[in-house]
Amino acid sequence: MVAIVVILAATVSVFTLGFTDDINQSSPLVGQSTGTLEPNPSGSGSDNGFVRIRHVAGDTIQTDDMEIVVDATDVCGKRGRLVNLPVDGYSGNAIGSTNIEGDDIFDGRPPYFGGPEYSALHETEYVAGKEILFRIPNTDCPVRNGDEVIVRVVHTPTNSVVIEQTLTAT
Fold first, then answer.
1. Is the distance from CB of 134 to CB of 121 less than 8 angstroms?
2. What per-residue confidence (pLDDT) applies to 11?
3. What's residue 92's pLDDT?
4. On the chain, which terminus has fewer CB atoms closer than 10 Å, C or N?
């Protein structure tokens, strides 16, 4: 009888004081996603190399709770990470140095200077129907037909990979 009372008291105190929030925080579930990778034709003037990761179905992810890991080691020996999201694309800055860890393989130009259009990277939430869009410039990492790049979307509070796409340039 005493054991049952102690267990009930412990259970009630855990729920009342909120200790389980830190222990049981789960990552968002992205039930389905798609992705594409465009190759960069030979020549440094190419404006291709777009990477698109579309959130098709699942939970909403707060953009400031995610990072994008791009592994292009098989293509050009580089690996970069987009952090400190969302990027501040509306005041003239697209992806900047404060948004990059590792190798800088990202086009930092805003759309009106030839960079990629605004996407979920510039918004507060990554919801079903939206896409992450960035560009790997030919000058930083030449991507050719058939090359593969791995893109992971990481939920930072739980350090969980919520999307992983191996993209083949076509």
1. yes
2. 52
3. 60
4. N
Under the banding of pLDDT at 50, 70 and 90, the label for residue 135 is: very high
Average pLDDT, integer, range 43-70:
89
Which residue is it, tokens 């925080």? Answer: 25
Which burial class, exposed, middle or buried, applies to 126 when counting CB atoms under 10 A from its CB (0-12, 13-18, 19+)? buried
> Could you tell me the pLDDT band of residue 153, with boundaries at 50, 70 and 90?
very high
Q: How far apart are CA 104 and CA 137, in angstroms?
A: 10
Strand partners, 132: 53
CA distances from 19 to 14, 23, 58, 64, 160 (A): 5, 7, 27, 24, 21
Number of H helices, E strands in the chain: 3, 10
Helix (H) or strand (E) holding 2: helix 2-17
pLDDT, the chain, mean: 85
Tell me 118's DSSP state.
P
- DSSP per-residue codes, 3-46: HHHHHHHHHHHHHHHTHHHHHSPPPP-EEEEEEEE----SSTT-
| Neighbouring-strand partners of residue 26 | none
Buried/exposed code over 31-41 (b: 16+ C-beta within 10 A; e: otherwise): eebebbbbbbe
